[in-house]
Structure formats: C-alpha cells, structure tokens
C-alpha cells in the first residue's frame, strides 16, 4: 500500500513525542551517541507538517550504530542503511504510515548535520518562509495524496533555495565544538588510581582551529579538568588565543569551567576576557569570561 501523504497543522505534542523517543534512542546507542536533535517540520513551532517525528543522531562510529540495528528493530524500526544518502543510516517506524524517522550520521559529517540544523533554525526564525512552506506542503498533499515521490519532488526547489539561504547565515561554530567534545568524551578507568573522560572540552582559536581534551581524575589531586587539557593541547600545537570553548558531560549536558580553569583561561592574555563559553547548547546561550571573573585581580 502506498504511503498516505497527510499534512496537518502544527501539533504542540510533537516535541514531547520527540523527547519520549529520544530516551529510547539514547539507551540503544549508549556511549556511541554524541548528540541527538529534533529536526524536520515537526521541530518547527507553527509549521504544518506530515505528523512524522524526524530525529537526527550524531555518533562516534557508524559501524557501532550498525551493530545496534537489532535493538532498533525490537522497538519497531526498520533499519534501511544509507537509503539514498551516503554516510547516513536511515530508520523508520510505522511502515508506509510511519510515525518516526531517524537519520544517523557520524559526528564528523558536518555537512549533513549542519544543513539539517540550519534549515530547522531558519524555519523557526523566518515567519514568511515558514508560512510559504506550509502552504506549499498542504497544496502538494492534496495533489499527491498517495504519491510521496511527487510530493517530495514538488517541494524540492523551495527546500534547496531555503537551505542555501539558511546555510549562508548559519553559524556552526558551537555545533563544531559540541560535536568535537562529545566525540572524545568517554568515561574510562586508566588504573586503580586514575579515571578519565567523564567530561570533554573543545576550544576554538582565533584561526578557527579546534583542540580537545578530557578530564583526568586521580586519587591525589594530580589530575586536570578537560578545559585545561584542551588548553595544553592548543599550546602544544602552537596556539595561544581562545575565542570559544565548550565542555560536555554525560548525556550531552554542558559544564561550566571551574575557578582554576577560568583563571587559566583569563591569563592567556589580551582579549581573553571576551572569550565565549557555551552554557546551553540547545538554545546556543553563552557567557563571556569577563562576566565570570568581574574585577579580575591582574
């Protein structure tokens, strides 16, 4: 049976449906998961959409994601491989009348990850284009009620134009940093006296290079925070100036630098006070270092 193409007005329950499915995906992918996102039209408040929850996951290894295929099948998904997009793993639930779709990319596949995020955020912030897209989709759903190919072909030109415009004004720096940190974050035991990796940090220098580091926790205060490890990596490789930094803990939660890390960051020299620190990745909220160290002693 052909898929029935139905476009409905925005449903405020869609974000909750995403949250419910996100936890199942997080449990299945485990340590391989770097980031997870609600994408597609159901992620845009006010936008009419096919009632299908689109989810994008970034992972450390697609091979490890493939090994989890059986667990996805157990909760109702079809695991369909690349399904037309190189470097992707596509999963759907509900068959022809699907309710959820998952798009898995490796975390270093920034082109695919960023284009989805840019388009989503563009639709969220551009009312005129959002309304135009909604009208187009409703019209196409009426013209092609059982022809998903015709429906998709009909909106392709609009999507390509909007995606190009979205990418032209999208700042992917925080995505790059968040994914870089998450890709090296992995809790592990080094010895009976040392544990590492529960927090990872990524910093960006003035020339847009990224350096990462993980925390090292020891039994007698000889360890270091992830931020200091990333700073050491930067200095070792010739860098000196940090413009942005993000630290990530378990389940993708943001971590603020401790007092010692704030002081070291500030001592990096002129301009360090304007360094941005990521506090909320979902909302891209940041704080400048000078706000965390008012009236700095030096």
UniProtKB/TrEMBL annotation:
The organism's place on the tree of life at top rank: Bacteria
Organism: Candidatus Lachnoclostridium stercoravium
Domain CMP/dCMP-type deaminase: 173-298
GO molecular function, one term: hydrolase activity
Protein name (record): GrpB family protein
Keywords tagged on the record: Metal-binding, Zinc
Pfam families to which the protein is assigned, alphabetical: dCMP_cyt_deam_1, GrpB
Keyword Nucleus (UniProt): no
Transmembrane residue ranges: none
UniProt keyword Transcription regulation, yes or no: no
PANTHER family given in the database record: GRPB DOMAIN PROTEIN (AFU_ORTHOLOGUE AFUA_1G01530) (PTHR34822), GRPB FAMILY PROTEIN (PTHR34822:SF1)
SUPFAM superfamilies: Cytidine deaminase-like, Nucleotidyltransferase
